[in-house]
C-alpha cells in the first residue's frame, strides 16, 4: 500500500472552493487522481454527465484511475472507497459510483458540507493490476461571497 498526503451554471454559485489541482498518486504505471467541487459550481453539462443535483450544501468527489503516459491515458477498472472528515473529526462515508464520461470511467459521489469548512479526504483505490493505494488530502470550502 502506498500513502500520499497533499494539501491542498444558470444560477450563481452558492458556495466556493479554493482552486487547487487534483490530489494525485502514482502506483506503478497507474495514476490515481481525486478532485472536489461544490455541486453548485457544476455547469449543466457536468451535472447531467455525473447525474447530480446542484446544491449549496453538497460537494462532488471525482476519482479517476488511469494507466499510461498523461498524453495517452486509459481508464483502469477497480474499486474506490472514500471518507470525508471535518476538523471536529465527524466522518462521513462518500458513496462512489462509476460514471463513464468522454471515454473514461470515474468514480463519483456527493456528500454534505456545512460551509465554511476544511475537510480531510481518505481515498482508498484498488486498481486492477496494480497495488492498492491510499490518497489523503485536505480541501477548504467557503460560502460564495
Quick rundown:
The chain has about 140 residues and is mainly β. The protein has 1 helix and 12 strands.
How would you describe this structure to a colleague?
Residues 1-16 have low confidence and may be disordered. This protein has 145 residues and is mostly beta strands. Helices cover 4% and strands 57% of the residues. Strands 1, 2, 7, 8, 11 and 12 form a six-stranded mixed sheet that branches.
Shape: globular
**CATH homologous superfamily?**
Domain of unknown function DUF4426
Total discrete domains:
1
Tell me the structural class. Answer: mainly beta
User: Which blocks of ≥5 consecutive residues have pLDDT under 50?
Assistant: 1-16
The total strand number stands at: 12
| CATH fold call | Immunoglobulin-like
Overall pLDDT metric: 85
Order of helices and strands: EEEEHEEEEEEEE
Strand content: over 45%
Beginning-to-end CA distance, first to last residue: 41 Å
Radius of gyration: 15 Å
- Helicity level: under 10%
CATH architecture: Sandwich
Question: What's the helix and strand layout?
Answer:
Layout: E1 2-6, E2 15-17, E3 23-27, E4 30-38, H1 44-49, E5 58-67, E6 74-75, E7 78-85, E8 91-94, E9 97-101, E10 104-112, E11 117-127, E12 133-143
Parallel strand pairs: 1-12
Antiparallel strand pairs: 2-12, 3-4, 4-5, 5-6, 5-10, 7-8, 7-11, 9-10, 11-12
Can you give keywords for this protein?
4% helix; 145 residues; Immunoglobulin-like
Amino acid at each position: 500500500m502506498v500513502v500520499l498526503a497533499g494539501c491542498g451554471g444558470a444560477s450563481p454559485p452558492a458556495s466556493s472552493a479554493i482552486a487547487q489541482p487534483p490530489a494525485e498518486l502514482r502506483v506503478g504505471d497507474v495514476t490515481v487522481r481525486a478532485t472536489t467541487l461544490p455541486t453548485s459550481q457544476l455547469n449543466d453539462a457536468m451535472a447531467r454527465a455525473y447525474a447530480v443535483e446542484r446544491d449549496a450544501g453538497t460537494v462532488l468527489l471525482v476519482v479517476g484511475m488511469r494507466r499510461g503516459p498523461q498524453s495517452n491515458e486509459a481508464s483502469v477498472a477497480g474499486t474506490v472507497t472514500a471518507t470525508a472528515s471535518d476538523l471536529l473529526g465527524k466522518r462521513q462515508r462518500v458513496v462512489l459510483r462509476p460514471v463513464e464520461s468522454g471515454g473514461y470511467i470515474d468514480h463519483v459521489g456527493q456528500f454534505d458540507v456545512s460551509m465554511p469548512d476544511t475537510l480531510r479526504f481518505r481515498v482508498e483505490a484498488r486498481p486492477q493490476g496494480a497495488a492498492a493505494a491510499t490518497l489523503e488530502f485536505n480541501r477548504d470550502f467557503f460560502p460564495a461571497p
